[in-house]
């Protein structure tokens, strides 16, 4: 394989490429889904292939192949050069790459137990045990479970001399309890919605999140939500639980901090960003307790790596410091456009058949000093609403106007969760919202959440990103608007 | 691109290798070489030419099944895939609902051939795409705008076969052009997706996007509230796409559909008729489903009445009905899906909708649409890239974008005019054939800053 990578670089440079890099990726995957007490799907997968990216006459070209022979690789390398030459006919300025040292390195993501060594029966057994508990709660109409395991072995080589081998193991687990009556359906998930929790870890993460141990509680909550009061409408102080806050960070800080968006390169589909370069170092993005980092070095976090997909070493970069917007997620070909000396190391591709683009690493809100969630609740005024576990998310294409719904909410009275609320939603304008943040829980309540399904690029690529967060409080936020669709509401 | 004969060889090899070792082998092959040229800020930014083939084997062993997919198409790779699928299936519990593999000797196994392949589109190379991109950029420069978007061309293959003698092969070509033109405080968008590149007029699409960007300059802010809206087809598609899965038997069995116990009942307006029809000339799907059954044309909604659900074989057995040929590859959590939707149109042109409106909002496209409530089908989302105020029969201004929260059920009871139905591509769902719509009383919940 490594000889084929060298051959691809040789073909590219012999045919006019001024720069080339190659990624060979071997992937193994398992997806297990259960519905009630039945296995709904077991899908196993393997995939191996090569992606070749070249610069020729100042333009980018990319081609991929799964025919890992000299003939197949040569054809792909020539196709990459051909597309790069075509790109160069529609360019004002040639692409310039920020400098990066050449590395010879091996990196393996941290894990205790290889999930592919755990028998399928064991995995299914955990999901069915949780399903039995959920179905034992009267009113649960459908109990769902899911686990996925992915192993990527990735080799990167470039004409600048880097030779990097990385192994990634990603694991996920989650359960969902659905309760449906005529005219209403309520849902509770654990540890998170939309597939559960995802980590750069092994089987140990499944044991840590204890699906059976949380099955009864979420099942009972799903049923209780059917008769709960609806979320009120109006302006309230709110507390956002850590998994929902992770998604809030993803949408309202992570995406707008992508430099390709800020420069208009993603405007046709994913959109642009209100965080344009003229705001760098000048815009008070949030209150002074808000510190957001892009940290590709966080151990076990889903968006971590040793090196990105153009061979840039993993970094920890501030995006917002003391509330001030101060940094971007960047790449080698965008860094110089805003005067950065080096890429921030954020280029990743979904697989060998996709070109790397700027993606979030782990975009995380640094913990504060508000203690535990229970302490924050105890210190909050009557009428404050606690929102937990995402149900729906939407934000405009410059990342200003957002609206989120959560599976469950609680009205706080007397420093305690006093009333369960269903159909909960909140929304706002990003900088106003983050400037209203007045308390962030301490490191004891900080969790690195993983999102496996971030969509961006054309053709659309799916990426896995991480978001560390502890619960936080925001003042005077609009709530309850999502269900107010009738004229008389 | 992989050929019919190559697909047949792989399927024959796999089924022969599994013979005697299991009760049945099903093989699905999918391949794509769709190449995408991307541009932004009036320059080419990415140029991608991927090629991938995947082989997926489903083994059925003593009432159990497992699926394994890989991309090693060599004889040794295919044999290993079959061996692994059989081993995996043996590890699982029996599936009491599992059916034997589909046999083409079943009554009614007639796949209506659909020709969606164009050799010229399949051959279209990077230079040809670059010429189209250059033409788009020229329009942008002439209007002092920035062009961004994609021009993509290529082909796709799907083949299926099994140890019961089934073989199906479908190839199609695809060409797509999507353009956003941006000015200092405005933008406009246009998009087309066809099976033939010759049907896409990149310059005309660029001119439409440019016209919208120029017309929406200096946008005004209007208050959130309820307005009549004129939805261009892309906006209609990206809203209604959130309904398609509710028409499946499995979603009803799982109590996840908003149409529980509603088949035969009138839920939508008299002017709403929706069909799943792979034979429609503007559609591009395969004529067979994930188990190889011929896709039937199914009326989902007839004059507002929920008429039928679509079923794969498993769902059909639960309901005691015939499968409709909409199954997803087994095993599947979702069961089936209508993938070739056609929404009936009317004869009111977009211009006439504008001309007859006293006050309305014209939406080019919608963005980041997400379901808020699964039973009432409330969705939220934003307007984008060409939102206009219509007053006294004329477009009078661009407006700053708005967030909507609307029930799709309510919306489809308030359609006051329908345009001609046409092949349409948005960003939230797969292409379908839909019309423009004028809808009364559309709920905008908030505004944004641009």
SSE layout:
The complex is a heterodimer of chains A (489) and B (450).
Chain A: H1 2-14, E1 19-35, E2 38-56, E3 59-65, H2 70-88, E4 104-108, H3 120-135, E5 142-158, E6 163-181, E7 184-190, E8 197-199, H4 204-209, H5 211-226, E9 229-230, E10 234-240, H6 242-254, H7 259-262, E11 292-295, E12 316-321, E13 324-325, E14 347-348, E15 357-358, E16 363-365, H8 373-378, E17 384-395, E18 401-413, E19 416-422, E20 424-429, H9 430-435, E21 437-440, E22 447-456, E23 461-469, E24 472-479
Parallel strand pairs in A: 4-6, 9-19, 10-17
Antiparallel strand pairs in A: 1-2, 1-5, 2-3, 5-6, 6-7, 6-8, 10-24, 11-12, 11-16, 12-13, 14-15, 17-18, 18-19, 18-20, 20-24, 21-24, 22-23
Helix pairs in contact in A: 1-2, 3-5
Chain B: H1 4-18, E1 24-32, E2 35-40, E3 43-49, E4 52-61, E5 64-70, H2 75-91, H3 119-123, H4 126-142, E6 146-162, E7 167-182, E8 187-194, H5 202-215, E9 225-231, H6 233-240, H7 249-253, E10 274-276, E11 298-302, E12 305-306, H8 313-319, E13 341-343, H9 350-355, E14 359-373, E15 378-391, E16 394-398, E17 402-407, H10 408-411, E18 415-418, E19 422-424, E20 432-434, E21 437-447
Parallel strand pairs in B: 9-14
Antiparallel strand pairs in B: 1-4, 1-6, 2-3, 2-6, 4-5, 6-7, 7-8, 9-21, 10-11, 10-13, 11-12, 14-15, 15-16, 15-17, 17-21, 18-21, 19-20
Helix pairs in contact in B: 1-2, 4-5
């Amino acid at each position: 394989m490594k000889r084929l990578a060298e051959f691809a670089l040789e073909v590219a440079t012999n045919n006019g490429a001024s720069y080339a890099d190659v990624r060979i990726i071997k992937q193994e995957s398992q997806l297990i889904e259960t519905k009630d007490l039945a296995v709904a799907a077991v899908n196993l997968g393997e995939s191996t292939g090569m992606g070749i990216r070249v610069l020729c006459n100042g333009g980018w070209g990319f081609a991929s192949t799964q025919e890992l022979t000299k003939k197949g690789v040569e054809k792909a390398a020539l196709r990459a050069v051909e597309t790069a030459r075509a790109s160069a006919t529609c360019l004002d300025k040639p692409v310039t790459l920020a400098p990066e040292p050449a590395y010879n390195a091996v990196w393996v993501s941290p894990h205790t137990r290889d999930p592919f060594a755990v028998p399928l029966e064991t995995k299914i057994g955990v999901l069915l045990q949780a399903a039995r508990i959920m179905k034992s709660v009267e009113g649960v109409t459908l109990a769902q479970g899911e686990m996925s395991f992915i192993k990527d072995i990735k080799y990167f080589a470039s004409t600048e001399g880097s030779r990097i081998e990385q192994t990634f193991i990603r694991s996920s687990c989650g359960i969902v309890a659905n309760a449906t009556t005529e005219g209403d359906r309520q849902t509770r998930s654990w540890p998170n919605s939309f597939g559960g929790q995802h980590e750069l870890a092994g089987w140990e993460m499944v044991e840590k999140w204890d699906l059976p141990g949380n099955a009864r509680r979420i099942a009972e909550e799903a049923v209780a939500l059917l008769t709960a009061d609806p979320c009120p409408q109006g302006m309230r102080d709110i507390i956002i639980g850590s998994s929902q806050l992770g998604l809030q960070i993803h949408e309202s800080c992570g995406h707008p901090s992508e430099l390709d968006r800020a420069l208009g390169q993603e405007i046709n589909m994913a959109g642009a960003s209100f965080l344009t370069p003229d705001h760098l170092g000048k815009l008070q993005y949030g209150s002074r307790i808000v510190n957001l980092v892009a940290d590709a070095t966080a151990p076990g976090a889903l968006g971590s790596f040793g090196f990105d997909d153009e061979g840039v070493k993993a970094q920890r970069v501030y995006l917002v410091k003391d509330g001030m917007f101060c940094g971007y997620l960047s790449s080698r070909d965008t860094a110089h456009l805003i005067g950065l000396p080096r890429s921030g190391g954020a280029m990743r591709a979904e697989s060998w058949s996709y070109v790397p683009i700027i993606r979030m690493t782990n975009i995380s809100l640094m913990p504060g000093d508000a203690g535990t969630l229970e302490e924050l609740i105890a210190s909050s005024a009557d009428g404050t609403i606690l929102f937990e576990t995402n149900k729906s998310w939407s934000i405009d294409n410059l990342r200003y106007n957002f609206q989120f719904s959560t599976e469950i909410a609680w009205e706080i009275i007397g420093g305690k969760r006093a009333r369960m609320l269903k159909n909960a939603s909140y929304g706002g304008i990003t900088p106003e919202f983050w400037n209203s943040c007045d308390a962030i829980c301490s490191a004891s309540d900080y969790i690195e959440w993983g999102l496996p399904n971030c969509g961006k690029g054309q053709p659309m690529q799916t990426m896995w990103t991480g978001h560390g967060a502890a619960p936080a409080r925001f003042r005077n936020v609009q709530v309850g608007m999502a269900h107010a669709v009738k004229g008389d509401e | 691109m992989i050929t019919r004969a190559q697909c047949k060889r792989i399927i024959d090899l796999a089924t022969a290798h599994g013979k005697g070792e299991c009760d049945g082998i099903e093989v699905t092959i999918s391949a794509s070489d769709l190449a995408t040229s991307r541009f932004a800020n009036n320059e080419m930014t990415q140029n991608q030419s991927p090629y991938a083939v995947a082989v997926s084997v489903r083994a059925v062993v003593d009432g159990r099944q497992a699926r394994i997919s890989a991309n090693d198409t060599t004889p040794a790779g295919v044999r290993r895939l079959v061996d692994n699928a059989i081993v995996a299936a043996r590890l699982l519990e029996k599936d009491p609902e599992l059916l034997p593999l589909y046999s083409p000797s079943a009554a009614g196994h007639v796949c209506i051939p659909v020709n969606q392949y164009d050799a010229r589109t399949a051959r279209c190379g990077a230079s040809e795409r670059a010429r189209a991109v250059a033409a788009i950029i020229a329009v942008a420069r002439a209007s002092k705008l920035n062009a961004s978007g994609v021009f993509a061309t290529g082909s796709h293959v799907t083949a299926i076969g099994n140890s019961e003698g089934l073989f199906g092969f479908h190839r199609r070509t695809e060409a797509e052009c999507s353009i956003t033109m941006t000015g200092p405080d405005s933008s406009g968008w246009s998009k087309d997706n066809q099976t033939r590149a010759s049907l896409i007029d990149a310059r005309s699409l660029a001119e439409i996007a440019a016209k919208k960007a120029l017309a929406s300059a200096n946008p005004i802010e209007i208050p959130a509230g309820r307005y009549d809206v004129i939805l261009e087809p892309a906006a209609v598609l990206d809203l209604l796409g959130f309904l398609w899965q509710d028409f499946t038997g499995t979603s009803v069995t799982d109590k996840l559909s908003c149409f529980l116990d509603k088949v035969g009942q009138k839920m939508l307006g008299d002017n709403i008729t929706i069909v799943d029809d792979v034979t429609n000339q503007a559609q591009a799907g395969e004529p067979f489903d994930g188990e190889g059954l011929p896709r039937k044309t199914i009326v989902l909604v007839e004059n507002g009445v929920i008429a039928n659900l679509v079923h794969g074989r498993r769902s059909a057995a639960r309901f005691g009905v015939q499968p409709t040929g909409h199954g997803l590859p087994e095993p599947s959590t979702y069961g089936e899906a209508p993938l070739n939707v056609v929404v009936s149109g009317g004869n009111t042109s977009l211009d006439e909708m504008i001309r007859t409106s006293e006050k309305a909002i014209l939406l080019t496209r919608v963005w980041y649409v997400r379901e808020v409530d699964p039973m009432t089908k409330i969705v939220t989302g934003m307007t984008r890239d060409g939102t206009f105020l219509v007053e006294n029969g004329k477009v009078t201004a661009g407006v700053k974008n708005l967030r909507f929260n609307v029930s799709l059920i309510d919306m489809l009871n308030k359609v006051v005019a329908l345009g001609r139905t046409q092949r349409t591509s948005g960003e939230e769902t797969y292409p379908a054939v839909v019309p423009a719509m004028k809808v009364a009383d559309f709920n905008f919940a908030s505004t944004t800053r641009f």
